Each structure stands twice: as C-alpha cells, then as structure tokens.
Amino acid sequence: MKVPHLVSAGLSFLMILIAVFFGSNIYRANENRFITHLNEMDRISYYGIADIPALTQKAVVFTFPLILTIFILTTYILIKKPFRIVRNIAIGNMVISTIIIVLSLLVFNDPITFDFSLWGYVWITMGIILIAGNILSVFIKKST
Asked: Which of 16, 26, 39, 43 has the highest local Cβ count within 10 Å?
C-alpha cells in the first residue's frame, strides 16, 4: 500500500516544480518593466507584462490534473487504509487538495486578480505539506 503514497508524493513534487517555474517567470515578468532597457541591451528576454494572465492560466492548466490525481489517490488511501493515523493524514491531505482545487478554479477564472506570482506560494507550501504527509504515511506501520 506504499505505492499510492509514493505516487502522490511524486506528483506533489512535480506540482511544486511547475508552480516554481511559472511563479518565477511571472515574477520576472512583473519586474521586467523596470529594467527593460537593460535587458534589451544584454539581449536577455523575459516574458512581458502582458503575458502574465496567459502564464497564470497555463500554470493552472498544468497543475490541475496533478492535484486532481492527488485528490483521487488520497480518496483511495482513505478508503483502503485500516490505520487511524494514516486515515487522519489522508483527511488532512484531502483538505489541502480541496483548497488547491478551489484556488485553481479561482485563478483560472480571474487570472488578473489572482496573480500566480502571489498565489503560487500556496501551491508550493501546500505541495510540501502533501509530500510530508504522504512520506510520513509510508513509515507508519501499525495503528495506535
């Protein structure tokens, strides 16, 4: 029964990497407006300020299937695991997944208000908590 936990932790790590990639690109696009002339002189090209809503929606499109798969795996773990501690961790992971799913829908529907450079930190921190919960669940052997 360790495989669903490890797959969920791996998908969470992949979600974190995607969130960091898009969050850093969006952050650089926000900061690019101040140093555009320096970047043009050095031939450094970042995304423009007009690309931020499209990058935000791309970030959500790439992370949404991952978080949905994590939610399904967590539901499977909740149903199949007999240990109380692991079930409690799975309930916590489901709550975290639900928060990320709701924020994904909000960010996708209004990418200007919910900028991913600010809300991407939620994906990163919640993903770290999902990884920790799943790795911890792997090492729990018996119910107490």
From this structure: 26
